Amino acid sequence: MSGLPELLRRLFRYYGFEGGPAAEGSPLLLRKGGLQVELIPVEGATELDESGLAGLLARGSRADRRIVASLGRFSAGARELAERRKVQLWDRSRLEEEAGRMLLAEVDTREAPDADESLLEPFLSGKTLGEGAPETEASGAAAAKGGSETGDAVCEALPGLELFDGEAAVPPAVTQERARELAAERLEGAFRFDLRTVPHYCFAFVCRVDTRHGRSETKRGLLLVNGLSGAVSAWEPAALVRPDGAAVRVEPALDRAQAEERAGAWVVSANTRVVHRRHDRGGVTVYEKTTLRPSPGALRLGYRGLIFLPVWGIEGGNGAVVLDALEGGIVKEELFAPVARSGADGAAETPGRSE
């Protein structure tokens, strides 16, 4: 691995991520605790347009954050698509900024202010509190909402969410005909389409995170825990409707307690960082590596209900795929033969299995 992929791997390794490409030429899948990031490097310095970006994002991903990095530029259409799909775009100037920060850290190992907070922003919303900042409300009022009155406890109110008797659904954005078109590259002769809704436990969280000497930051937001796989992701509320029975409802395999445990572990992992500090002590320079993670009293979780997200289950002559009915990416596939191609296209690779 060389060039841009190697630079990205080194950069994220500096921030504590591990991993690499699943196969030669495939995106980099990097992990830091329970946080997973997919990096898609684009070699060359040409401008990437909307259709080119759509092709890179065609295959679904369960990563918490997807980043497309290029030494070139991104068209206005590509940037609009990335905003809709919640994908980060790193152009040459962003790469220069991050690579420069990494190189400077090798010279001066003192902690750079909020260095790795900038890496994945916007990731989780937060506000910075200065040293000795007052509580937002009296601790008693906060405790009435489920908070703790201990010194390091978080007292901010948890984000709210309007549901229907503890449940809500997000309506599909991909029609059956569009689903047929999107699945055509992987599936031959689609003949059955089932619209299903997958259960996700929704939790609100507030987490106090130490950043530097005397400073802290409060992260607030909503999480979804997939009731089947247990995968956790940050979530920005979409238009919600009352479940109407039009789709096949899938029941969760995890219970609420299991989902809450995974949500808490995800928040702690996402807000754990390794910092490097330099201290001068009596003419001796001491370099210290410290892991900062939220304390047990710094995290609050609040259960909000079940959110059902739509997927298309599609069967065809060579297998079946599950397609995200919101963004159109393939979530899972079970194929036993490639799509038949004529001429040069007949040499297409045999598809693998995606979880």
Your description of this structure?
This protein has 355 residues and is α+β, with helices and mostly antiparallel strands. It has two domains: 3-107, Trna Endonuclease, Chain: A, domain 1 (3-Layer(aba) Sandwich); 126-187 and 193-309, no CATH class. The protein has seven helices and 16 strands. Strands 6, 7, 8, 9, 10, 11, 14, 15 and 16 form a nine-stranded mixed beta sheet that branches. The protein has a five-stranded mixed beta sheet with strand order 1-2-3-4-5, with helices on both faces. It has a two-stranded antiparallel ribbon with strand order 12-13. Helix 2 (50-56) links the parallel strand 3 and strand 4 (65-70). The longest helix has 16 residues, at 92-107. The chain starts with a helix and ends in a 20-residue tail after the last strand.
SSE topology:
Blueprint: H1 3-14, E1 18-21, E2 28-32, E3 35-42, H2 50-56, E4 65-70, H3 76-85, E5 88-90, H4 92-107, E6 126-129, H5 139-144, E7 167-169, H6 176-183, E8 192-210, E9 216-226, E10 232-235, E11 248-249, H7 256-270, E12 273-281, E13 284-292, E14 299-316, E15 319-324, E16 330-335
Parallel strand pairs: 3-4, 4-5, 7-14, 8-11
Antiparallel strand pairs: 1-2, 2-3, 6-9, 8-9, 8-14, 9-10, 12-13, 14-15, 15-16
